[in-house]
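User: Can you write out an input/output pair for a complex, sequences first and structure second?

Assistant: Here is one pair. Inputs:
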Amino acid sequence: MTDRFVYLDHAATTPVRQSVVKAMEPYFTDKYGNASSPYSIGRESRAALDKSRDAIAEGLGVDSREIIFTAGATESIINSIIGAYLGNRHRGNHILTSSIEHPAVHAVLDFLKEKMDAETELVDVDSNGILKLDELESKLRDDTVLVSVMNVNNEVGSIQDIKAVVGMCEERGIMVHSDCVQSIGKMPLDLADLGVDLSCMSGHKFGGPKGIGVMYVRQGTHLEPICEGSQEFGFRAGTENVAGIVGMAVAFDEAVKGQAEHEVLHARYKQQLFEIIRDAEPAAEINGDLETCIPATLSVWLPGCSGEMLVLALDRANVAVSTGSACHTGAIDPSHVLTAMGMGRLEALGSIRISMGHTTSQEDIDRFGEVFAGVYEQVKVSAG
Amino acid sequence: MSDQAFRNIPKGTKILVAMSGGVDSSVAAYRLVQAGFEVVGVTMHLVPVEDKPTSGAQASDERACCSIAAAEDARRVADKIGIPHYMLNLAGMFDEKVMGPTRAEYARGRTPNPCVLCNRYMKFDALFERAAQLGCTHVATGHYARIVDDETGLHLLRGVDPDKDQTYFLAFLTADELETIIFPLGWDTKASIREEASNIGLNVADRPESQDLCFFTSGTEKDGIGAVGKGQPGEIVLTDGSAVGVHDGIDRFTIGQRKGVPGGMAEKMYVIHIDVEHDRVVIGTEKDLYASEFTIDDISLVSGDRETPVKFTNVEIQVRYRTKPVNGTVELLEGGTGVIQLEHPVRAITPGQVAVWYSGEEVIGAGTILSVKR
């Protein structure tokens, strides 16, 4: 395969920035100390940890003590949701979440329901993938302890009005968890301003390494530690992944600094991408609404086409995009996000997700334009 | 091994190979790569998988076809032999084309052959389509069968290993379809394939046979697919029509079955006929199970026009997988049905199962058994 490789699946993961690799490198070789050790290289690691924590806290508009490093957003979600539930069990057992959350959130809520007597309920979204706030309000109860609503959806990019969610919950003393995995570098984000109690992010979604993430716990939030230990303010036992943390902090800084510029670029590319797709398939439609979605994510419905086969055929042409969801064997199931937005199961199977990031360039879009129509024709014409 | 399997298909041809994670399809894929084809491996995901962890202490030994473990095996083999591998979600199609018709056939008092349906609609129809979508012109599988071409066209022949020959399941293929199919293993024995897998270091060399693992063949197939329990209660009668008992539904019976048949008779009694119209199960002796004439429909010929009435004489007819074929004649009638006469009676010819007729090693045609003359 000599064709240019085009990567348009940044919502899945991103290439690690060169600056990040460079910043991490000494912490594998020279500065390998355990951050809990008292001697020189231990203190060095501790200092790097503190500095990284400060930088991320500042970028999110919060206090350093509110930032807990984990192995990624999924771990953050498990610890924060289960911890918040156990820590507030005396106040009730009712939890609300959106129908379009990442499976990590739905899985934890299923666990609480099956094993720990939680009562969980989904709140619907409209056809653009925006949470129905009136439905949320009507479902809040005296025994509701937690509401979990993602900031930006991973499949269609729809942005939720988290401030409004917080507004409803705050006065009732209900905690709010908001998954911010897809927000970093894609839109301005100030956690203090949003007012959420709990949040999470993953380093690898914005140019950092895999296996490192953040759990945000607002001061005063009562959380039962699930993985109790001496590290990370008692909330996350285990030797800190110093290199990963340093790398994530550098990636975070660059992602935040480049955010405004990338947002403009991505909006332009998104328009071009949709035009390329429309030229090949005039009936194609965007899932969600341009106004209420981040520019970096484009989810498109191609009527009558198999999204699964289109993704695989594009791979044969060295272009990486996604359907947005996959079951555990790797085969594709209808997206719960698209079905929640009102699409039928068959319709939902006819969508692809194209997502951009810090390395996406005009050349990528142009190459996509060169191959898309031919590949689409092959998939469509061969379909029985 | 033999290059005959690759006919004169040029090197570099793009080929989609169906990989179950088992030894046969793994060696088939390996051979295609060795022969210089551009190979893409796919594993079909046909039934919903249990949503349970499968690693470490919780892992079970079961490696049913379509399981996560089987998909993992296929992925690892693909990686080892250096080809891309994809999972294809065909669960919806499998339900529509295989499970649905299988349930419907049971409800009609017939005993369908889901393996034939699966081979026909999933292994081939679906694969042809997916292959074209991925830019492949040919489809390959690990079936033990041979495709040979001569001046008269393409022919489907039994695999050389008599214990493994799978042409019974492939008999619905037409010469046009054979054009785009490759069976790399047809000239080999199972033992030699296992040995080859072991020699090339495929970790699947000692995996159990995939057909023994398919959920359909686990012995509880009827229950497993929810095919039982929809029938009406009715009478169990003798061949003279006299009632000797009652049953809970014809879908619980198949020809040759003893379970559910009243005891206390002078001889062992078996289900010999299912009378759908009157919801009756007819029982008889071992001798009553034998028949030598039956009708077929849903006919397919490898070559030639199945609409034109024709009589095949001196062919060998097989009414189920892995049984000795019996000489006889097949007469195709107008309207898409046919009559098969066997030279000597065969036990438990079962409506819904498939009859395949051969001329020597070559598959001529196939049809679904409609009714048996007694």
